[in-house]
Amino acid sequence: MNPLAPILQRHPIILLDGALATELERRGCDLRDPLWSAKALLETPDLIRQVHLDYFLAGADGAITASYQATVTGFMRRGLNATEAMALIQRSVRLAIEARDAFWADPANHADRPRPFVAASVGPYGAFLADGSEYRGDYGLSEAALIEFHRPRLAALLAAGADILACETLPCRVEAQALVHLLAEFPDASAWISFSARDGAHTCHGERLADCAAWLDACPQVAAVGVNCTAPRYIPDLVRAIRSATQKPIVVYPNSGEVYDAARRNWRGSGLCATFAEQAREWYACGARIIGGCCRTTPDHIRALAAWARHLPPPAAPVIEAK
Fold first, then answer.
1. 322 pLDDT tier (thresholds 50, 70, 90)
2. Class of domain 4-309
C-alpha cells in the first residue's frame, strides 16, 4: 500500500521530518561509532521516540526511522545474535509508531493534517561499511549480493508495521535496482527511492539522475523518486532532472546547507531555518511535493517549512471528461 498518494490527493505537500542522527548528537548522544544513529537503538531508545514526537509537533507528516545504519550484520559485529539484531531493527519502527500514536491521540493535532505515516529507513550498503563509500557507491557488489544484504532488514521493517520504506541516500543505480527487485518479494509494500547526488545532474556514483528516474518510472511499487543528503543548491536542477523522466511524486530532503569538514570533524557554513524554508519554495515550484530535511536540520527547520506550507493552495481536482 502506498500511503503517499491519498495524502497528495488532499494536500498540496507532504512534509517529512528532519535529521535524526545529528539531532540526537545535538541532544547529547555520542554517535562516533560504526553503528551511528543505530547505536541509539541500543542505548537511548526513549530519546529517539522523543525526537520523532518533536518532529510531528513541528509539522512533519512522516517520520523516518532510526534504521538507516541498522543491519543484522552490523549488530552481529557488536556481539548480538541474529534474533537480537532483528529485534533492534524492529524497535526502530515501534519507536516511531509510538511517537505517531501519541501525537495523533490528541484531537487538537488533527486540524488540517493527515494522519502521519512511518517510513522505515533503508540505508545503502555503504552505510554499513562506515567508510564513506555510501557517498561513492564504489563497493563493487552485484545486484544479487545487494539483494541478499538488504533482504533481512526489509523483512524485519515491514513485519514491524512500517507504512512505507524510505530507501535513501542511494549513491548508485545498481543498488536502487536491487531494492526494487527485492520489493517484488513483498508485493503489498511500497517504497520511495532517494539518491545522494554529487552535482545537479548525477548520483554520487556518476549516473545521470534522469536515467535512474526513467528506469524507476515503470516500477509500480515505487511511490516516489528523489534525492536526499545533498547540498540544497543542487536541488532545483535535480528536481527538474527527475521531472523530465517520471510523473511519480518527487521527494527531496537535503542537508541544512552546512558542509562537513572531515579534517576538523565539524560543520561549516549557514543552515538558517528561514533560508531553508525560502529555498523550499523553489523546490516546490520545480515540482517537489514531498519535502523534509537531512543532516543538520532540526525541528525548527520543519516548523519553518510548515509555516510556509500552510499558505499553499490545495491540489487541483482531477478533470473528469464527460462521455
1. very low
2. alpha beta
